[in-house]
From TrEMBL:
Residue spans crossing the bilayer: 20-39, 51-71, 91-112, 152-172
Source organism per UniProt: Thioclava arctica
Family the UniProt entry places it in: Belongs to the cytochrome b561 family.
Protein name listed in UniProt: Cytochrome b
Membrane topology category: Multi-pass membrane protein
Organism lineage: Bacteria, Pseudomonadati, Pseudomonadota, Alphaproteobacteria, Rhodobacterales
C-alpha cells in the first residue's frame, strides 16, 4: 500500500517552478515541431511556420536556461523528503544535470546548424544581433548530426524523467511531485 502524500517536503521557489514548466512546455512543443518540419512534401506555409517557431523558440529556450542556471546557483533546490534514498537522489541529480546539458547541446547545435548553413534566425536579426560566423558547410554537417543524435538521447531522458515524476505522483505519493507542482506556496 503506497504511503499517503505527505506534502511535508519544501517546494522549489515559484520562479524555479515557473521556469521549469515554461521550458518544459516549450521543449515538448519543439520536439514534434522539429520532427514534422523536416518531413518531405510538407505544405510550404506549414513548413515555414514550423521552422520560424522552432528556430526562434529554441533561442528563447537557451536564454531561459541561462536564467534558470543563474537562479539555481543563487537558490539551490530544497532538500528531498527523507523517504528518497541517497542513491535515488543521486540518480535524480545526475538525470537533471544531464537533461540541462542535453538541452544546451540542442540549442547550440541548432544555432550553429542554422548560422553555418547561412539561414536566418528572424528574432535575432530583428534585434540586430550580427552573424559572426558566415557559411561553413563542414560545421553545418557536424552541427546537424549532433542535433539529430542528441535529440534521441533527450527524448529517452525526458521519457524517464516524466515516468519518474508520475511514479512519485501517482504511486509513491511522497510529495516529490508537489515540490515542482505549478501552484504551491513555499514552506
Ligand atoms: C531544446 C532545444 C531544441 C530541441 C528540443 C530541438 C529539437 C529538434 C528536433 C527533434 C529536430 C528534428 C530531428 C533533427 O533532424 O534533428 C530538430 C531539427 C532542427 N532544429 Fe532543433 N531543437 C532545438 C533547438 C534548436 C535551435 C535553437 C535551432 C536553431 C536556432 C534549431 C534548428 C533546427 C533545424 C534547422 C532543424 C532541421 C535539421 C535538419 O536540417 O535536418 N533547433 N530540432
Ligand atoms: C510533463 C513533464 C514533466 C514533469 C511531470 C516534470 C516533473 C518534475 C518534477 C516533479 C521535478 C522535481 C524533482 C525534485 O523534487 O527534485 C522536476 C525537476 C526537473 N525537471 Fe522536470 N518535469 C517535466 C518535464 C521536464 C522537461 C521537458 C525537462 C527538460 C528537458 C525537465 C527538466 C527538469 C530539471 C532540469 C529538473 C531539476 C530542477 C532543479 O533541480 O533545478 N522537466 N521535474
Amino acid at each position: 500500500m503506497p504511503p499517503k502524500d505527505t506534502f511535508d517536503s519544501p517546494a522549489y521557489r515559484p520562479t524555479a517552478r515557473l521556469l521549469h514548466w515554461l521550458i518544459a512546455a516549450l521543449i515538448l512543443l519543439m520536439i514534434p515541431a522539429g520532427q514534422i518540419m523536416i518531413v518531405k512534401g510538407l505544405p510550404r506555409g506549414l513548413q515555414d511556420a514550423l521552422f520560424l517557431f522552432h528556430k526562434n523558440a529554441g533561442v528563447v529556450i537557451g536564454l531561459l536556461m541561462l536564467v534558470r542556471l543563474g537562479f539555481r546557483l543563487r537558490y539551490p533546490p530544497p532538500p528531498l523528503p527523507p523517504s528518497v534514498a541517497p542513491l535515488q537522489a543521486r540518480i535524480a541529480g545526475i538525470t537533471h544535470a544531464l537533461l540541462c546539458l542535453l538541452v544546451f547541446v540542442m540549442v547550440v547545435s541548432g544555432y550553429l546548424r542554422v548560422m553555418a548553413g547561412g539561414f536566418p534566425i528572424e528574432g535575432l536579426d530583428a534585434l540586430g544581433v550580427p552573424d559572426l560566423m558566415g557559411r561553413n558547410p563542414g560545421l553545418e554537417t557536424v552541427a546537424k548530426t549532433t542535433h539529430a543524435i542528441t535529440r534521441l538521447a533527450l527524448v529517452v531522458l525526458i521519457g524517464l524523467h516524466i515516468g519518474a515524476a508520475l511514479f512519485h505522483a501517482l504511486w509513491l505519493r511522497d510529495g516529490v511531485m508537489a515540490r515542482m507542482a505549478p501552484r504551491r506556496s513555499v514552506k
